[in-house]
Structure formats: C-alpha cells, structure tokens
C-alpha cells in the first residue's frame, strides 16, 4: 500500500525555537497533504490542507504565521512550528492523497511527537 | 457541541466477548463515514467505511442511521490484538475528515 513517512518521529526543543517537520509520500504523488494535531486523549484536529504549488488553507483558529506549511513538490510537505511554546507540544500527523482519490483514502504518516521545554 | 461524539470508555472486555461502540455526529450534511483504529502513540489506520445498508468485514460490523445521525461498530469474538482506540470519522466537505476523540477498548485474557 501507499506509504507516507514523517521526519523526525520525535523532537524535543526549547521554547522560542523553530521546528520543521517533513512529510513525504514515498511511492505516489501527493497532490494534497493534510496536517493534523492531536493532544493527549483528544481528537485529531485538522490544522491545514496544502496543495502542491499553492498556499495552504488553514482551519479556523490555526495561526498561519506560526505554523508555516510548504508543499513545494508532489512528494514533500513541511510544517514549521515557529517560536514554539510548551502549549505547542503535541502529536503532529500528516496525511496525503493523490489525484482522484476519495477522502477515506488518506494515507497517514506515523506522526511526530513534539515536546517543547 | 462536538461535531463527532464518542464514549471515551475504556471498555474492558474478556477475550471472545462481543462489544459495541456508538458515535453520533451533528452535521446532517455529512456524506461519508468511517471507523479508524489508533494504537497508542501511532497514526490512525482505516478499519472500515460505513454504509447506509450496514456492512461487515470479518468480525467487524458497522451500521449507519442517517435519521438519528448515529454510527455503530460491533466487534465479535474479541481478540487481545483488538485492544486500541477506535475513532469515528465523518466527512462532509471536500476531503476534510472530522475525527471523534475515540473509544478505548481493552481486551483482557
């Protein structure tokens, strides 16, 4: 089946620094990628949708200047958490679909656990 | 009110038991429905789609009641490996998936 990877799988950073998370589709071209965040014992919450070559669409309440998303190629999207604070500590998961797929055919990456100290 | 609501559990059942989870959704325009499974500290994985006529996949049966905006998942003959969190997921616009917070299942020997 389709594979999506994320790097790093976990990261610890100091408050005020920036962290970049990569999401790659390994065996298909991802026209659309999604970024989710999951706090302990809570739902996955969609943060933004990114389409290759265009600006990301952010969900209500998600600061686009804090969570920078770049989808520069059909196999790579990056999420940069700028000036991270402890409240940004969470599990960040990306997913990807290729052209023509239905919504359920989102292939999820393994997630990145971010801890901000 | 949450868009997708689930009982968080945990449901603690012995091996071989039958267990059922329920889920309600608030948006009547919802188009597609799914159950995902998420293991601790892992990404969610699609378990099955849910159709109006009900559908079965081995030991798993899913039902949808559009009038009541209610979805269910039945697991028969529970295995230890079924221990996980089960996420009810709804789609009503484009590719946006709305996840419930999940119901935790613990299957004991």
Descriptive notes:
The complex is a heterodimer of chains A (117) and B (109). With 117 residues, chain A is mainly β. Chain A has no helices and eleven strands. In chain A, a hairpin with a 2-residue loop joins strand 7 and strand 8. The mean pLDDT of chain A is 91. Chain B is mostly beta strands and 109 residues long. In chain B, strands 2, 4, 5, 9, 10 and 11 form a six-stranded mixed sheet that branches. In chain B, strands 1-3-8-7-6 form a five-stranded antiparallel sheet, with no helix packed on it. Chain B is globular, with a radius of gyration of 13 Å. Classes of the chains: A mainly beta (117), B mainly beta (109). Chains A and B meet through strand 5 and strand 9 of A and strand 5 and strand 10 of B.
Give the tally of β-strands of chain B.
11
What is the global morphology of chain B? globular
Q: Tell me the helix content of chain A.
A: under 10%
Poorly predicted regions of chain A? none
Q: Which helices and strands occur, and which strands form pairs?
A:
The complex is a heterodimer of chains A (about 120) and B (about 110).
Chain A: E1 4-7, E2 10-13, E3 19-25, E4 32-38, E5 44-51, E6 57-58, E7 67-73, E8 76-81, E9 90-97, E10 107-108, E11 112-116
Parallel strand pairs in A: 2-11
Antiparallel strand pairs in A: 1-3, 3-8, 4-5, 4-9, 5-6, 7-8, 9-10, 9-11
Chain B: E1 4-6, E2 11-14, E3 19-25, E4 32-38, E5 44-50, E6 55-57, E7 60-65, E8 70-75, E9 84-93, E10 96-99, E11 103-108
Parallel strand pairs in B: 2-11
Antiparallel strand pairs in B: 1-3, 3-8, 4-5, 4-9, 6-7, 7-8, 9-10, 9-11
